[in-house]
C-alpha cells in the first residue's frame, strides 16, 4: 500500500509539475526571509530542475535513506545550489527554506488528489514531510560547509598575505610580523623565511615583532623555533621591535630566549645585519644640506 | 656489505656529500670512517653537505652531533651545509637543535666558515655562523 | 572515515626502517601534501619505526590512505610486541629515554602530526597511531 501511494504521488507530481512549480515559486517569492540575492529567473530555473530530479528519485521508491544512491542527483544539485547561494550572499534560512517551502504546494496537491483527511493522504504527507525535512537539513549543512570552506580559504590567503618576506639588502632578509603569532602562522613564517633565505642566499634574517601585540610564553616558543630553524640552515636571525612593555613581560614571565640576538628597533637590527655581512654605511657629509 | 659514503680530502679539510638514503648503518659507518680519516690525515676541518638529504630524524641528528663532538676531540671543526628548509622546520619541531655544530647555507660559505674556524684567531666571521657552544 | 588503501611493512631490522620510510614517502606523494608536511610525516614514521625496533624488539607498520569527505589524510600505525609502556606521561616527555636515542621519538612524532594516539597493553606490546590531514579545497 505504501508503495502505491509513493508511485501515485510521483505520477501526480509529473502530471501537475507546472502547477506545483508555480505554487512553489510563489511561496518562495513571498517568503519574508527572502533577500534579493537570488533573482526570480534563477529561482524558477533551479526550482524546476529540482522538481524533475525529486520526482525521478521518489519514483525509485527509497523514501527512508537520503544517503542512498537513488538520491545522489538530488544531493548533488542541492549542494551545488547551497554553495552558489553561500557565495551570492543568501542567508542560511533562506537557502534552507528552498526545500521547506515545497511542503505546502506538495501537500496541497496530495490532499487534492487523495482526498483531505483520509488515511492515505495523511500517511503520504507524513512520509513526504520526513523526506523534505531530511533534504532541507542536508541543504543547510551543505550551505554551512561551503561557508566554512570560504572562511578557510580566506584565512589561508590572509596568512600568506600577512607574512611578506622582504629582501633588505644583499644577504639580508626581513619579516615584519603583524598580529598574533600562533602556531599556524609560525609555520608559514618559517616556510616563507627559510625559502627566502635559500633563494636570496641571505646570511642574516630579521624578525621584526613591532606589530605583535603581546608576547606570552607560547609566542616566545614560536620565536625561538623560528630562530633555531634559521640557524640550522646556516643563517643568523635577529629579533627586533621589542617594545618596552614586551621586554618587561619577557622578563616577568621568566622566558628564556637563550642566545637570540635582540634589538629594540628594526634600524638597530639593520645596522647589525649590515655589519655582520661586511657592509658599512657612511654618510657623505659634503652632500648634507 | 654496508654502502659507504665517499670522503674526499682537500688540503686540511675533509669533504663529505651525503647523497644516498642515510640508512642507520651507513650513518654509523660514516662516523667511523670520518674519525679514522681525521686522524690519518690530521685534518683540521670537516665539511658535510646534506643538500640532497630528504629528512633528518633524531637518530641521524645524533650521529651528526657525535661526528662533531668526536672531531672536536681531535682538534677538528665540523660544518654542516645545505640543509633544506623543510628539514630545518621538521628538526626544530622534533626538538633537535644540533648544539655544537656549525652550519652554513652553501658549500662555499661553509668552506669560508671552516677557514675562519681553523685560523687561530677565531675572529668574528661574516659569512655563515657558528652556533654558540656552551 | 573511509580507508582507501592500506599496506603493511614488517619491522625486523634497521634496513626495514628505511623501507618503511620509502613506503610512506610513496603514499604521501599521492596526496597533495606540501614538501614540509611530507618531510614531517616521513620523519615521524622514521622515529616511530625506530621505536618499534629499539623498544618493542620489532613489529609492524601499517600505512593507510584515509578519506573523510572534505579532507584526506595518511594514517600510520606502529605495533610492537614488546614490554609495553608502564608510564605514558614519562614516555611522552622530551629527553626521557629507556633506549639509546635522544628521547624525542614519541613527543616529537606527536608534534609533527595532527593526531596521535597510543595504547599500550603493558606488558604485551604498544600501538601508536598518527594521522596527518590535508584539506580538500
How is the secondary structure organized here?
The complex is a heterotrimer of chains A (289), B (134) and C (137).
Chain A: H1 2-15, H2 17-29, H3 40-59, H4 72-88, H5 92-100, H6 103-114, H7 119-161, E1 166-169, E2 172-178, H8 183-200, E3 204-211, H9 217-233, E4 236-240, H10 244-253, E5 261-262, H11 266-276
Parallel strand pairs in A: 2-3, 3-4, 4-5
Antiparallel strand pairs in A: 1-2
Chain B: E1 7-10, E2 13-17, H1 24-41, E3 45-49, H2 58-73, E4 77-81, H3 85-94, E5 102-104, H4 107-118
Parallel strand pairs in B: 2-3, 3-4, 4-5
Antiparallel strand pairs in B: 1-2
Helix pairs in contact in B: 1-2
Chain C: E1 2-11, H1 14-30, H2 35-56, E2 59-67, E3 71-80, H3 88-92, H4 105-112, E4 115-120, E5 126-135
Helix pairs in contact in C: 1-2, 2-4
In brief:
Chain A is an alpha/beta fold and 289 residues long.
Report on this model:
The complex is a heterotrimer of chains A (289), B (134) and C (137). The model of chain A has no long low-confidence stretch (mean pLDDT 86). The longest helix of chain A has 43 residues. In chain A, α9 links the parallel β3 and β4. Chain A has 289 residues and is an alpha/beta fold. Chain A has eleven helices and five strands, in the order αααααααββαβαβαβα. The termini of chain A are far apart. Chain A has a five-stranded mixed β-sheet, with helices on both faces. Chain B has a five-stranded mixed β-sheet with strand order 1-2-3-4-5, sandwiched between helices. Chain C is of the alpha+beta class. Helix content of chain C is 38%, strand content 33%. Chain C has a five-stranded antiparallel β-sheet, covered by helices on one side. In chain C, α1 packs antiparallel against α2 and α2 packs antiparallel against α4.
Low-confidence segments of chain A, given as residue ranges, are none
Percentage of residues in DSSP E strands of chain A: 5-15%
Q: Helical percent range of chain A?
A: 55-70%
Count of alpha/pi helices of chain A? 11
CATH homologous superfamily grouping of the largest domain in chain A: Globins
Amino acid at each position: 500500500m505504501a508503495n502505491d501511494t509513493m508511485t501515485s504521488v510521483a505520477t501526480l507530481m509529473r502530471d501537475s509539475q507546472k502547477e506545483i512549480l508555480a505554487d512553489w515559486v510563489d511561496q518562495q517569492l513571498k517568503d519574508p526571509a527572502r533577500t534579493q540575492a537570488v533573482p526570480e529567473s534563477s529561482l524558477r530555473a533551479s526550482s524546476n530542475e529540482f522538481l524533475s530530479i525529486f520526482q525521478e528519485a521518489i519514483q525509485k521508491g527509497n523514501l527512508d535513506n537520503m544517503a542512498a544512491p537513488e538520491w545522489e542527483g538530488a544531493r548533488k544539485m542541492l549542494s551545488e545550489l547551497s554553495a552558489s547561494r553561500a557565495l551570492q550572499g543568501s542567508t542560511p534560512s533562506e537557502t534552507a527554506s528552498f526545500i521547506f517551502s515545497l511542503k505546502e504546494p506538495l501537500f496541497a496537491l496530495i490532499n487534492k488528489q487523495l482526498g483531505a483527511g483520509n488515511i492515505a493522504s495523511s500517511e503520504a504527507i507524513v512520509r513526504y514531510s520526513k523526506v523534505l525535512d531530511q533534504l532541507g537539513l542536508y541543504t543547510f549543512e551543505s550551505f554551512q560547509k561551503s561557508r566554512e570552506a570560504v572562511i578557510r580559504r580566506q584565512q589561508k590567503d590572509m596568512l600568506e598575505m600577512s607574512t611578506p618576506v622582504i629582501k633588505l639588502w644583499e644577504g639580508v632578509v626581513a619579516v615584519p610580523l603583524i598580529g598574533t603569532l600562533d602556531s599556524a602562522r609560525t609555520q608559514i613564517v618559517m616556510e616563507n623565511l627559510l625559502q627566502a633565505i635559500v633563494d636570496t642566499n641571505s646570511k642574516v634574517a630579521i624578525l621584526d615583532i613591532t606589530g605583535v601585540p603581546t608576547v606570552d610564553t607560547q609566542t616566545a616558543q614560536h620565536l625561538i623555533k623560528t630562530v633555531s630553524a634559521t640557524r640550522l640552515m646556516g643563517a643568523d636571525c635577529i629579533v627586533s621591535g621589542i617594545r618596552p612593555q614586551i621586554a618587561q613581560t619577557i622578563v616577568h614571565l621568566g622566558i628564556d630566549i637563550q642566545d637570540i640576538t635582540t634589538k629594540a628597533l628594526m634600524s638597530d637590527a639593520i645596522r647589525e645585519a649590515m655589519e655582520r655581512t661586511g657592509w658599512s654605511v657612511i654618510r657623505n657629509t659634503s652632500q648634507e644640506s | 656489505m654496508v654502502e659507504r659514503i665517499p670522503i674526499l680530502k682537500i688540503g686540511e679539510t675533509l669533504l663529505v656529500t651525503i647523497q644516498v638514503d642515510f640508512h642507520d648503518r651507513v650513518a654509523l659507518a660514516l662516523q667511523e670512517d670520518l674519525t679514522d680519516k681525521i686522524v690519518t690525515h690530521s685534518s683540521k676541518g670537516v665539511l658535510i653537505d646534506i643538500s640532497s638529504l630528504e629528512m633528518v630524524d633524531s637518530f641521524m641528528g645524533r650521529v651528526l652531533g657525535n661526528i662533531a663532538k668526536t672531531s672536536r676531540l681531535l682538534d677538528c671543526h665540523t660544518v654542516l651545509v645545505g640543509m633544506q628548509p623543510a628539514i630545518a622546520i621538521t628538526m626544530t619541531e622534533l626538538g633537535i637543535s644540533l648544539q655544537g655544530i656549525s652550519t652554513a647555507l652553501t658549500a662555499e660559505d661553509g668552506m669560508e666558515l671552516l677557514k675562519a674556524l681553523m685560523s687561530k684567531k677565531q675572529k668574528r666571521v661574516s659569512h655563515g655562523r657558528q652556533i654558540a657552544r656552551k | 572515515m573511509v580507508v582507501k588503501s592500506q599496506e603493511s611493512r614488517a619491522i625486523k631490522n634497521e634496513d626495514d626502517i628505511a623501507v618503511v620510510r620509502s613506503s610512506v614517502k610513496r603514499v604521501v606523494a599521492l596526496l597533495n601534501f606540501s614538501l614540509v608536511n611530507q618531510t614531517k610525516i616521513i620523519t615521524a614514521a622514521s622515529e616511530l619505526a625506530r621505536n618499534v625496533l629499539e623498544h618493542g624488539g620489532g613489529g609492524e607498520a601499517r600505512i593507510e590512505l584515509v578519506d573523510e569527505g572534505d579532507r584526506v589524510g595518511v594514517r600510520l600505525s606502529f605495533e610492537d610486541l614488546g614490554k609495553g609502556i608502564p608510564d605514558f606521561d614519562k614516555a611522552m616527555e622530551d629527553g626521557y629515554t629507556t633506549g639509546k636515542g635522544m628521547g624525542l621519538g614519541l613527543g616529537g612524532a606527536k608534534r609533527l602530526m595532527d593526531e596521535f594516539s597510543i595504547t599500550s597493553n603493558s606488558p604485551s606490546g604498544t600501538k601508536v597511531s598518527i594521522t596527518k590531514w590535508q584539506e580538500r579545497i
